[in-house]
Amino acid sequence: xxxxxxxxxxxxxxxxxxxxxxxxxxxxxxxxxxxxxxxxxxxxxxxxxxxxxxxxxxxxxxxxxxxxxxxxxxxxxxxxxxxxxxxxxxxxxxxxxxxxxxxxxxxxxxxxxxxxxxxxxxxxxxxxxxxxxxxxxxxxxxxxxxxxxxxxxxxxxxxxxxxxxxxxxxxxxxxxxxxxxxxxxxxxxxxxxxxxxxxxxxxxxxxxxxxxxxxxxxxxxxxxxxxxxxxxxxxxxxxxxxxxxxxxxxxxxxxxxxxxxxxxxxxxxxxxxxxxxxxxxxxxxxxxxxxxxxxxxxxxxxxxxxxxxxxxxxxxxxxxxxxxxxxxxxxxxxxxxxxxxxxxxxxxxxxxxxxxxxxxxxxxxxxxxxxxxxxxxxxxxxxxxxxxxxxxxxxxxxxxxxxxxxxxxxxxxxxxxxxxxxxxxxxxxxxxxxxxxxxxxxxxxxxxxxxxxxxxxxxxxxxxxxxxxxxxxxxxxxxxxxxxxxxxxxxxxxxxxxxxxxxxxxxxxxxxxxxxxxxxxxxxxxxxxxxxxxxxxxxxxxxxxxxxxxxxxxxxxxxxxxxxxxxxxxxxxxxxxxxxxxxxxxxxxxxxxxxxxxxxxxxxxxxxxxxxxxxxxxxxxxxxxxxxxxxxxxxxxxxxxxxxxxxxxxxxxxxxxxxxxxxxxxxxxxxxxxxxxxxxxxxxxxxxxxxxxxxxxxxxxxxxxxxxxxxxxxxxxxxxxxxxxxxxxxxxxxxxxxxxxxxxxxxxxxxxxxxxxxxxxxxxxxxxxxxxxxxxxxxxxxxxxxxxxxxxxxxxxxxxxxxxxxxxxxxxxxxxxxxxxxxxxxxxxxxxxxxxxxxxxxxxxxxxxxxxxxxxxxxxxxxxxxxxxxxxxxxxxxxxxxxxxxxxxxxxxxxxxxxxxxxxxxxxxxxxxxxxxxxxxxxxxxxxxxx
Length: 931
Description:
The protein is mainly α. Helices cover 76% and strands 0% of the residues. Residues 1-28 have low confidence and may be disordered.
């Protein structure tokens, strides 16, 4: 086949040009603005708003003064909810005197869409020249503006005036109906709406409000019909379509809801109700991350819509992001304080955060209104049990069973609680009833097996496990249960075999791998434990619990750097989770790095401002850093966030003590013990307080009670060591600290033991304890720092220097280590010493010790002016510390300021406080005083 010729193209061209000359051709004729406007109207009538807008903009490009095009463009933009763009076009159309009588009403709507209520009231005036019906519409818009400004009396006056002009004015009656609804006169609202509908059955906004009334009244079927009618009458109104999508989700018509949302995404993708409806659809389909993203977009688009916060709380709770759920539900309740559903969910969030006191308060509120809410009763029972109120907890669970005596789940919960409270026979009876009510329910049999195992009735427990195995021959549950029972029997090998069998049936299960890892750790096989956890992580990438367990293995091996890296990764994988950050702070405190712990917690505090766990950890870090004022403020915030928590008042007591407020400290400690007389940290603090008040007999008596109640507790043993040191019994302190270190081998245990050994005069033993510790825990900066000090005191500067350099390898910005190394290198390497001292001063510009080191090195370098300036600042910050004052006197003498140096030396020596350079100070004073 031959290649086509160009003849056809030439024929077409000739047809355009004409047979005898240059005649016009439609294909090349420019279109007029009127033609573009006509096309836009046609497209709008077909519902193609995007195309209509394009053609209108083409018309305005041809003729910017085409008032009709601007009026139509403003109308379409109003219908699309784009108030700002609509306002601009409508104002221009009015300037051009476009012949569209709806322009004033459209402008009112455009201003209302933007929330420009004051502007609407100032500009939208019902002029006498307008028809009465139009003036009534404008008055209705003014009423709506006053209503939005929460001035109902002025709103009613506008609506009443509209009805005097036009007794059937539907939008005025709609306004009065809205006002009646807001004032909880629902029947009147419905009556007014029906009157308006009789007068104007084709007014879409009336059907929209009817849909809202039906939806808020719990009639989603009627709401769907009403919203559908509104859409038929005003097809471009996105709000009605979005609300219909929400109603359809409630009716479980998910495919139809999705169709509405798809239409919304084409017409108004950034409209907050589009994003809100999309979020609810994802939530209904249990696609929680997608729901979260859509709802967060809705919140960014419109942060004033309270239900977005409510459902964000639901979504976060579904993903176990309990802190975020707490935040959003609390935010919602500030706007809608009477929502029992939100109170109920917030109670669950508090329970999951172990803030049981707050959960109880919220659930009390729920049960006041819903006495027969079985779920609330179950949670309240669990809360009371967690608070140690066993009998009250069981009573709530019994009420739950009374509501539904044939509920196997309810009886299972009650049975478990009775077992936990020590009422084994009653608990087992409830569990047997639950098993009989629902033979397929395995949970009661599992609890029965565990109860028998707890009672050392291992054969009966194993018999139940075998019964479960017969019911579920391919399930991992029975061998897993058998493993737990064998663990109770202390048969490690049988337990390992059972867990291994369960794992073969359920490969990669994190719980089973955790059990096997724990068995390995029991035998101190950390490498084997790590392998199990890594296998779990491979099967479930990013699993938070597994990441945290691996961090614990790293910590057991003393690898602080690895711990922090792993927890940092867990935080990145789970940006909403607080637990990795809290665990990181805890390990930093354990390994003697409270500064890093405080910085970490301060960085994340804005995201969790009222979280009790974070506030408690931050108070602890601030106390460790001796930041007393900040610790007190944080502790006060903690008691506001958790007013009934013993730990909050205990930390407040410590903060008051740090701020030299003994009366307030004792009151807070008394409050903590009143809330929980068995709260161990408060009892320990009580002993310390008694000792500090020189009430040694009472302190010893309370310590004996603690040792009787907690003979193997490392904190109690450490307290015994501390009290022995306080009472100058260092040998007894060594024994107590050694036992504490055996029970809990962490940095404070080892440093306490080493310091006690040093006090007994066993310097080699103290150094040996720390040397052995840092060999196994290379990242432990606090232990290395103490070891460096011991080396210096023992006359071993090279070893001291090596420890400080190791600290700086891991943490180059450790100002304390920089300062001490600078002091050690003053004579040996003055240039390096100077550089280190400057770095330390930059990092800690208000530390008198750091400034003192820099000042002395500056004196060594002959930079006397700056040295004295630095030493004066150190002296002002040090509160009269004699060594620093002596160094300042040396500097003043080098500046030939003899009189001031003499006055300072005289004051230092008159103070009688001991300091290492006292003899040098006496010699300098004698020398200067003679001259």
